[in-house]
Specification:
- The complex is a heterodimer.
- By secondary structure, chain A is an all-alpha fold.
- Chain A is built from twelve helices and no strands.
- By secondary structure, chain B is an alpha/beta fold.
- Among the domains of chain B are: about 1-75 and about 145-215, P-loop containing nucleotide triphosphate hydrolases (Rossmann fold); about 220-290, Alpha-Beta Plaits.
- In chain B, the strands form three sheets. A six-stranded mixed β-sheet of chain B has the order 5-6-7-3-8-9, with helices on both faces. A four-stranded antiparallel β-sheet of chain B has the order 11-12-10-13, covered by helices on one side. In chain B, strands 2-1-4 form a three-stranded antiparallel β-sheet, with helices on one face.
- In chain B, helix 5 links the parallel strand 6 (about 150) and strand 7.
- The longest helix of chain B has 16 residues, at about 160-175.
- Classes of the chains: A mainly alpha, B alpha/beta.
- At the A-B interface, helix 1, helix 2 and helix 6 of A face helix 2, helix 3 and helix 5 of B.
Amino acid sequence: MSATTSASELGAPLSKGRGAGFGHQLLAEWTKIRSVRSTYWTLIVFVIATLGLTALFGWLTVHAIESGRAARRSASLSSDPVDFILGTGLGLGQLAICVLGVLTMTTEYSTGVIRASLLAVPKRLHVLAAKAVVFAVLIFILGEIAAFCSFFIGKVIVAPVATVTLSQPGVTRAVVGAGLYLTVLGLFALAIGTLVRHSAGAIAIVIFLVLIAPGLLSLLDTYDWGAHIHAWFPITAGGYITSDHQAAGQLLTAWQGFGVFCGWTALLLIVAGYLLNRRDA
Amino acid sequence: MIEVTDLTKRFADKVAVDHLSFTVEPGRVTGFLGPNGAGKSTTMRLIVGLDHPTTGSATINGKRYAELPSPLRTVGALLEAKSVHSGRSARNHLLFLAQSQGLPPSRVDEMLDLVGLREVAKKRAGGFSLGMGQRLGVAAALLGDPEVLLLDEPVNGLDPEGVLWIRNLMKQLASQGKTVLVSSHLMNEMAVTADHLIVIGRGRLLAAASTEEVIARGSGQSVRVRTPDAERLTALISAEGGSAVPASNGNGNGNGTESGDHAPVLTVTGVPAARIGELAASAQIVLHELTPQLATLEDAFLELTAGSLEFGHATTGPAGTEEAAQPKQESVR
């Protein structure tokens, strides 16, 4: 076997350039996230659930009001139309974002790709950071699109009973805030996925925290200390930014709440990064 | 070059790697042998930083794996456990790896051609056969044109053609001056592939030497002797400083039995065949058979690992332990 055939069989020798940087890591994570079907499925479910349910709930409610069967709902819709629009579709669609956030990390473990990833990038925090950045940008863009589409669909549907426009105080902030909330929620789920490393367990925990825990904590609202716990709970605090006004007795402003949510998420990501570094992969 | 120094990995309930030290030199294929559970895979995972050592260190060209700027350009590793997303195509798997190292996408296509996966590059890797999966793993390992190759059981599940392909590939890489460490529990495979061997058992080093040396050292070049007068011959051999023991597979095996010879068979070590003949002649002992036994790597391996399994972690004690511990002193060289 001659040296020339060896060289060609093994591919051209590569020049030993400088090391790869964080930009390369971002590109690699983007390739990972766009090259598996679960990303597309969860995002399709997110968009359909968000827009479809916004339209469905809006239409059913308006219909009920117009036929005179729902005076009570009428009050809620006409006093709080923005909350109604952003709370219905996105309230369920957010679960798809939670699932995708968890899966983005846990499938690395379930498929063993984590080994390939860490061989390529042994600085593990870079892997987590690149993944978080790519995922956050993707969810922010899709989240904002979904939030604005939801708003406009809802606005048209509730027009017979309530009038909402982006120019009303707090409305634009609430719609933009819905996209921000989804982005941070996705990172929150990604951090839990990194901590738990198993898809089913991590998804169960996130769904409990998002759907069930806020309701349980609201039972504490009758106590002064309980109301504080409830208000500072990440999902509750984060949700304040999706409302165009501050409810009576709401302990945190929209941006304060969002800051609390970001703080919790940052804390979880830091713990996740610490454990990612410490554990055997 | 890979240097492993006093490497220990303790899991909750067991010591997987036990104060292991060895060096893997460039320009040759180094076989990493040991029975299942000896700690081969753990050692490799420690070298590439997937597991954290309890004590000791492993360096590649003088650096810890995590300190390598674009590690895939220095080290290519094919680990035993799968590391591909079943829903991702072969091309996208290699593509993200290439991107993480700042390698051009054209390199991915080169590798797909090299391992013969071009045709199925866009298919989901979940549908790959074991052999195709190994080829994808090899493509990933060679992606960055690394100087150091770590291959954990690379021929597992490959058909004979695939085995030959891997074998030639390893030799070729070594001939280009690369460092090649390949683990296996298949002794015969190592005998034809590896120039140098590192043998471990229970996480401890049993031998680190050239393949020929391990074979030679292993069975100590025994001689098979068949004689009706076994007792007298045994005494003579003992007087000469050798040892003669009744062969365990005495009359049951091959040569001589078909002639209906029921004379006892001895396995003699420490005395060459020619000298046994002279001793027998001088004492007028009749020999029916005098056969020097060529040790195989398998024999050597079984002998080495049997010691480690039998005597466990004892550091002093019966002869077998000394034999097992002896090569350890020459491990760092």
